[in-house]
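Sync notes, pocket subgroup
Present: LS, DG
LS reminded everyone that the earlier model was apo-only. Rerun requested with zinc ion included. Inputs:
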Amino acid sequence: MEWGIINKENFEDKTTYDCPVKRWDPLSTVKITSEAFGLRKEHMRFYGHYSYISPIRGLRPKGFKSDEQEEQFYNCLEKAVSKFKDVFSSIIEGKIAHDDWGMPIGDGFTMIITEDELKRDDPFSETPHRIERIPDTCKAITLINRYPSMARIIDRDIEAHIMKNLPPHIKLSEGINLVTISRNFYPSLCFKLIPEDVLAGIFLSMKAAILYCIEESINKDYYDIPVMPFFNIGTKVGGSQPRIHSQVYIDLNMDGHGSRLEGYLEAFKEMGDRCHLCETTHGGSDRIILETEFWTFYTTGSPVRNYHIRFHPNEHIRRFSQLKSNQIQDLAHCLKLIFQALDDIEIDKNRNILFNSCPYGYDANFHLFADIIPHEVIGGAELADDMRVARKLPHIAAKEIRESLEKYLK
Ligand SMILES: [Zn+2]
């Protein structure tokens, strides 16, 4: 069921549990009661904890050949980085790529949603194919994830069969999973090697792909759509491929959203016209790391990890896809600087970047914001509730990062 396609050819002889499912936890799931957050007469909607369970995720190829090679990427060693070939090389070249031992890496088949900002395959297309060699001038491309956690195309007969056989609290999970990669190989663990325009290109390609997918989803009568753009950088935080890449989860189940997003939506609702992000000085500014015309970066006062950085556009916009080109260029510039500053003070290079947006179709107030969360091992109490224990005082963390950043700002 690669590329999120379930049809008669690949479903044959499988059990209903071999398809991606979404399961709401009955102990933490509540019906949505606010129209602004997705209450609709025709559908039961929830917020709470849910899991996507997708057997195909386990088949993702390993990106690093060995621990030693991974170590070389951590240290940005030239020999590991130059001429590196990965599964994406085959896609970009439009033919099978081979490693140093002549072994084929990947088959080159893909579905491409955007080449830079240019629309390519329909987000609901059903046929993986080899694409023409991507021109050198291209910065980034956005593809359908071959190993998704949601199904994108479902044969209607099979869907009826699955629905009949799955228990009522489990449903077939529908949605689009995107992955955006740089056209040329740059290792995600070495932000300093990634040119600013390539990083900006990744954001621009993601944005265009989200807009294209939403447009086509609405044409297919999907609405109220949570969209989650994120980066997994390093194997410890879920980044299985060495090449810089981002992902977007577009949930088309039309059954609600998670409890954390519910918290954000409620908080912004309570703020009304007095948006916290528009008004705050972030603790009298001693937690601010970097402030530009377009963005503010600061250490959050309630960190999820030590050195947890939060950032937001200075403009009150609700979604990632509303970012304008100058905001995106500046974001790429800032992220490169901050990642370098974090590297210099030896913060774990395994990091997530998570964008928090208002779902499409919700008539809710929201101010787009994002989190940079460096990897750390978490403990039992932290799994038990939406709580974290941090040791580093956020204003001290901010001071350390600011001092590390200083040399790059002169
Ligand atoms: Zn605001």
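DG: The longest strand covers residues 21-31.
LS: The mean pLDDT is 92.
Action: DG to write up.
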